[in-house]
Amino acid sequence: MSLVFRDLTKSYGKLVAIDAVSARFEPGLVYGVIGPNGAGKSTLINMTAGSYAVSSGTIELDGRRLDGRKKHEISLAGVSRTYQNIRLFDQMTVLENLEVCLYPLDAPRIWQEVFWPPHARRRGAERRRICEALLADFELLPHADKAAASLSYGRQRMLEIARALMRGPRVLLLDEPAAGLNHAETEDLTDRLRRLRDPERIMIVVEHDMDLVMSLCDRILVLHHGKLLFEGTPAEVQADAAVQQAYLGTHDDLDEIRAAAEDRRRQRGLGPDERPVRHHA
Ligand SMILES: Nc1ncnc2c1ncn2[C@@H]1O[C@H](COP(=O)(O)OP(=O)(O)OP(=O)(O)O)[C@@H](O)[C@H]1O
Ligand SMILES: [Mg+2]
Fold it and tell me: Residues in domain ABC transporter (predicted)?
C-alpha cells in the first residue's frame, strides 16, 4: 500500500497553491510537511481528504485514484484528517463527537436517525465500547458527557485526533495538531502521535513546531510557494542549504523560529475568550 501524488496541482484562480508536487508515502512511516505560511500545506491535506478538488495531477491510494471521488468515498477508502482550526460539534458531548462516526457516511441524517436498524444499533453498542476505549487512551473518558466546547483547548485537540481514529484510518492527515498547545501539551501530543505509528498506517503531519516535527517524523517534505523544495530525513532537511534559506534561515535562526512558535502558542493558548476562531463541522 502506498499513497502517491503525481504532478499534483491546485490553483485558486491565478494563484498556484500547489505546483506539480510528486511524492510517495509508505505505511509504517510518519511524514512531516513543513513550509512557511501560505506554502500550500493545508491545500495538500484538503486535496488528499477530498475537501478541495484537484486542479490537475493525481492522488492514488493502493493504485486506485482518490482524486475526483467524493469526500465520504475517500473517507471510506481509509483517509482521515484533522483540521488546522478545530472542528468539533461544540454542543454535542465528547462521546457523541465520536459516536457520529458510527452513522453510515453516505446516508442523510434523518434517514440514519429514523431507520437505523436494530442490528446496526447493536453494532453501534460495540462501537460505543470502541469510543470509550479511545477516550480512555486520550485521557478524555472522565469528560465523556461534557459538551465538547467546554473542554480546554488542548483537550479539544486530543478529541479531534481521537475522532479521526474512529474508523481505523490507513492514512491519517493531521493539520497543525500542536497549534495553540503549550509546551507540556505539545510534548504529550508528540508522545501520543508516536504511539499512533502503525505498520499499516501512513501518517502525514503538517506542523510549524520544529521540535515535534524533527523528533517525530521519519521523513520531511518541505513546501515553498507550492513546490516541493526538498524531501529527506530530519537530519538531511536541517542540513540542506536551500531549505535553510527558504524556510529555516541559518542555524541561528532556528532559535528565532522556535521563539516565534512559542509566541504563537502563547497568543493562541490564552484562554477560552482568546481562542482562535473555530468553525463548526
Ligand atoms: N479556499 C481558498 N481560496 C483561495 N485561496 C486559497 C484558499 N485556500 C488557500 N488559499 C491560498 O493558497 C495558498 C496556500 O494556502 P494554504 O492554506 O494551503 O497554506 P499553508 O501552508 O497551510 O499555510 P499556513 O501555515 O498559514 O496554514 C495561500 O496563498 C492561501 O491564501
Ligand atoms: Mg495551513
Answer: 3-250
